[in-house]
Amino acid sequence: MIVFYLSGAGAYLFFLLVKFLGDSESDLRDVTSWLVIAIASSLWFVVIPISLWEIKSKAKSNTTPTKSKTGSKAEKDNKTTVHTKSDAQNILSHHES
What is this structure's pTM? Predict the structure, then answer.
């Protein structure tokens, strides 16, 4: 059991270090950043599922069903096409102009 925990913590620590060191905007002398990396890698079994859940909810909220305005068979059948929110905003801005 301890081998599983340590291997997961080590792998997540490596992942976080690669991302942190590759970020040009991060300050390598900031103690808070290093503290967050240490805590996140030691609590990886909690942090990773929460992060995945947040990513999935963000992706789910970025899609909204909108009616297709193409005049295609889908419109005649009164079916909807899924677009992202930015696509819907672009479509609306084109129709308002």
Answer: 0.50
